[in-house]
Amino acid sequence: MFAPAKAATVPAKAATVPAKAATRLPEDVLRTRSRRLACAVVAMALATASQAHAGDLGEIDTGPASLELGGPYLLAGQDLAFAAALDWHFRRKTQDIRRAYVCLTGETIGGASLCATGSGVGYADDLRAETVRSTLDVELSLAFFRLVELRLRAPIVLAETTHLRFDDGVDAQSSRTAPYNADQFFAVPSTSPTRAGLADPTLGLWATFVSTQRDPDDATVALGVDVTLPLAPARKAGHAAVGDGAVDIDIALGASGRVVPWLVPFGRLDIVVRVPASDTLYPDLGSTQQVSGPPHSLAWSFGATFVPFEEAPQSALRLTLGGRVEFLSAGKFPTALFDAIGTSDCDPNDVQNPCALTTTASGRRASGATIVEEHLAFQGWIAADYDLLGALRLSARASVGWETPHHLTFADRGLDLDGQLGLQPFNAIGRNEFDPDYNPAWDAPGNRFRSVDAVTVGVDVSVSGHF
C-alpha cells in the first residue's frame, strides 16, 4: 500500500529559519497537520461508505508500495502511523473449455484421418466461459516505529457472474457436453447466480529488517504473513455466497530500493498454503480421497517504479511496470463449471430420464468443485500513483493475465487398499477403493474438460490516506 521514499524529514532550510519566521512556525505546522487530517478523514469516509475485494486465486498486492511500513509521510520523531484505503477492482476472465476424446488409428470423418499420429487423446472445442467480478476493499493499517505493521483487509464482492455458452462453431449437434439427442452434463447456455456480499477478511503482520524510511542509503527488505480467515459463508453451487471456505496463509518476502533517484526496482516472493475449512466445498471423504483441499501456490513478483516527479513529502508521481509468475499445485476448486455442474438436472434417481453423468464412482452427486491440474499463471501490469497534499494517494492499475492450458477435471481414480485386483467398488474388506471425487465421465483421460486461452483483464482504482 505504501511506496518507498527517502525518510521524510523537515527540510534542512527549516533549521536555519530566521527568528521572525520562527514565530510563524506553529501556524504552519497547524495548517500542515489540519490538511493531513482532512485528507485522512476523506479517505476514512470513503472507506466506510462501502467495502471490499475478493481477488483471483493467489492474487496479491505487489510492488514497492506494499513493502514500506508507515508510509512516506511521517515527520521525524513520529512513532505511529495510521493509513486507510479504499480499493475498487474489476476482473473479466475468458477461457475456452475443450473436451477430450479418444482417437483410434484408422478413424476418419469425411475421408480425413482423425488420428494422423496414431491412437491417443485429442481435444475438441466445446464451451466458452466468461467470469466478471467487481469488488471493493477497505484496508486499514497501523505501523509502529517503522519496524512493524498490522494490516486488515475487509473485502466485499459487489457482483460476480459466470456465463457458459457453446464455443464458436459448436452447437448442440456437435457438443460432447450438452448434445441434443443424449444425456447432458448440464444445460448450455448456463449462467450462475450473481454473487455478492462480504467475503473473507485478511489479517497481516509485517516487519522490516532494513528500510529506506529509516536510512535513505538502505534498501527496504520486508517479511510478512497474511492470513485470510473463512468467516464468510462458503460458496455453494446455485447460491450467492462468496466465501472461499479455506484458511489462506501467505508468507511473503519482498525487497525494493532506489538505485537512482528516479528508479526503484522491486521483487517479492510469496508462498501460499491453503487449508480447507468448509465441509461444503472441501469435505473429508476418507482415505481413498487423493486431493481434498484447494491449490497451494508459489509466486514471484518483480518490476520497477519510475519517479518522473517528486517534491517530498508533499507530492509525487510514480509509474510502475510489473510482472508475476505463479505456480499453482493440483487442488480442488470451484472453476467456471462450478455452478453448471452443481445445479445440473442430470440425476440418476430421475424416474423418467435417469442420468449418471454428474455422479462420482462412489455414488456421490458432484458438488460442482472439481480437481484442477497444476499449472502456471502469468500477469503483467502498469500502474500510476499520485501523492498530493502530503497525505493523500490516488492510484490506478491495468493488468492482463494468462494461464497455461490445464485440465479442470483431473481427479485420481483412487487407492488400492487391499492390493488385490486393482481398484474395486467393493474390495476384500468391503471398502470402495475409488476416489470419492473421481467421476469417469469427466475425470477419465478421454473425457476431461481442459481450459485453454484463459485470459484475465483487470482494472484497479484506489484512494488512500495517511496520518
Structure, explained:
The chain has 4 helices and 19 strands. With 467 residues, it is mainly beta. The chain has one domain (12-466): monomeric porin ompg (Porin), CATH 2.40.160.40. A hairpin with a 3-residue loop joins strand 16 (375-388) and strand 17. The radius of gyration is 27 Å and the shape is elongated. Residues 1-25, 29-60 and 70-77 have low confidence and may be disordered.
Detail the topology: elements first, then pairings.
Layout: H1 19-22, H2 25-49, E1 80-103, E2 108-109, E3 112-113, E4 120-144, E5 148-166, E6 190-191, E7 195-198, E8 202-210, E9 220-228, E10 246-256, E11 263-276, E12 297-311, E13 315-328, E14 331-333, H3 338-342, E15 370-372, E16 375-388, E17 392-403, E18 406-407, H4 440-443, E19 449-466
Antiparallel strand pairs: 1-4, 1-19, 2-3, 4-5, 5-6, 5-7, 5-8, 8-9, 9-10, 10-11, 11-12, 12-13, 13-16, 14-15, 16-17, 17-19, 18-19
Put the structure in a nutshell.
With 467 residues, the protein is mostly beta strands. The protein has a single domain, classed as Porin (Beta Barrel), CATH 2.40.160.
